[in-house]
Amino acid sequence: MSLPVPDAYERWMRSAIADARLAFGTGDVPVAALVIDERGEVIGTGRNERELRNDPTAHAEVLALRDAAASRSDWHLEGCTLVVTLEPCVMCAGAVLAARLPVVVFGAWDEKAGAGGSVYDVLRDRRLNHQVEVYPGVLAEDCAELLLDFFRAKR
Fold first, then answer.
1. How far apart are CA 133 and CA 7, in angstroms?
2. Which of 144, 140, 48, 42 is nearest to 91 (CA)?
3. Burial of 50 (0-12, 13-18, 19+ CB in 10 A)
4. Is there a contact between 134 and 128 (Cβ–Cβ < 8 Å)?
5. DSSP labels, 88-141
6. Is the pTM value of this prediction over 0.90?
7. Which sequence positions are flagged as catalytic?
8. How far apart are CA 3 and CA 56, in angstroms?
9. What is the pLDDT at residue 136?
């Protein structure tokens, strides 16, 4: 069963896609993330900066979660939504669970390293102490096109 996609998710995803395009300037894979609070306000943003920072943990999701936690002065992000252009990896899914986010919205599937339902389903694993409601495939084609453009240019 497919969950209905609220209009706000598409609006937020368009914003994340625009931010992901900025990664082309740093040589990073174009992935961006937003953390949205209970009022629908963006409280955290991040885009991949592994190349820029020489930091293997500088994934868009981790940076957005750090930004959101700093803006709240609290690492507990209950009531917030993570919007990301690519399905989170295992590390990022773990960070989402640690921050206690209830909802993750993502665009493109990551069939090699995804942990939101493709390779793994860490976000909804009932054996863990927290589960997340996942809305996959929001503007998936637009998100995937960014990645395809990036990797075509690298070849």
1. 17
2. 48
3. middle
4. no
5. --HHHHHHHHHHT-SEEEEEE--TTT-TTTTS--GGG-TTSS---EEE--TTHH
6. yes
7. 61
8. 33
9. 97
